[in-house]
């Protein structure tokens, strides 16, 4: 239920960007600000890292398990990224939408295309661009101090970014992340507006009938 008390169907809110452009930071901020927004938990075949929790950070599985979900039609989207497979299980997302909750996705353009083919009416997509190639590289280098990525890995991410940004025009909204606080504010504004779209407010018909009865 939204802030006005009207029932509504949830939406799928996709944020995509090259690594280092800010989508993960924005995603975390929106989750903190919105109690009715939940994070889509991806399935992955990559090894679990220290401190990661099964079913909270990812659904960790082997390749045969992952492929079985694809074959059964239980993946909304899936892709191979840096040698590992990632995908979105269908069931928890559909349940959240029916309950009026919004689901946020931190996925790439390939996953976004697949979602668009399956659930276009529920989808809102935002592509986040860095202000410049130089700034993106600096952010990746700063981040590598914590992630311990090598020079080769940084160069690989820069090369991948060159391809990723060509897909910006496939998205509903495009933001340039000059300032992270401003970018968070803008993505929240988009979310607020999309929640108010008539087709998502499933309780509107009942509300209008009640309003007419009182006139």
What is the mean pLDDT? 90
Low-confidence stretches: none
Residues in helix, %: 40-55%
Give the C-level CATH assignment of the domain at 12-40 and 100-203.
Answer: Alpha Beta
The CATH topology of the domain at 12-40 and 100-203 is given as Rossmann fold
Shape: globular
In what range is the share of β-strand residues?
A: 15-25%
Key attributes of the depicted protein:
alpha/beta; Rossmann fold; five-stranded parallel β-sheet; 215 residues; 9 strands
What does the model show?
There is one protein chain. Helix content is 44%, strand content 19%. It is α/β, with parallel strands linked by helices and 215 residues long. It has a domain of 133 residues: Rossmann fold, CATH 3.40.50. The protein has a five-stranded parallel sheet, with helices on both faces. It has a four-stranded mixed sheet with strand order 4-3-6-5. The mean pLDDT is 90.
């Amino acid at each position: 239920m939204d802030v006005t008390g009207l029932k509504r169907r949830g939406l799928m809110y996709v944020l995509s960007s090259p690594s280092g452009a800010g989508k993960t930071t924005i995603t975390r901020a929106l989750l903190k600000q919105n109690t009715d927004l939940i994070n889509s938990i991806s399935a992955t075949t990559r090894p679990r890292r220290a401190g990661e929790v099964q079913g909270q950070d990812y659904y960790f599985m082997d390749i045969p398990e992952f492929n079985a979900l694809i074959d059964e039609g239980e993946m909304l989207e899936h892709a191979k990224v840096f040698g590992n497979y990632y995908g979105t299980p269908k069931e928890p997302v559909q349940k959240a939408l029916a309950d009026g909750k919004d689901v946020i996705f931190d996925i790439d353009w390939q996953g976004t295309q697949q979602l668009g083919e399956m659930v276009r009416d529920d989808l809102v997509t935002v592509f986040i661009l860095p202000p410049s190639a130089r700034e993106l590289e600096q952010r990746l280098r700063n981040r590598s101090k914590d992630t311990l990525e090598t020079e080769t890995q940084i160069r690989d991410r820069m090369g991948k970014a060159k391809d990723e940004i060509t897909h910006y025009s496939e998205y509903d909204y495009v933001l340039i992340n000059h300032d992270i606080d401003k970018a968070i504010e803008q993505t929240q504004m988009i979310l607020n507006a999309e929640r108010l779209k008539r087709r998502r407010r499933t309780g509107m018909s009942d509300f209008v009938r009640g309003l007419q009865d009182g006139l």
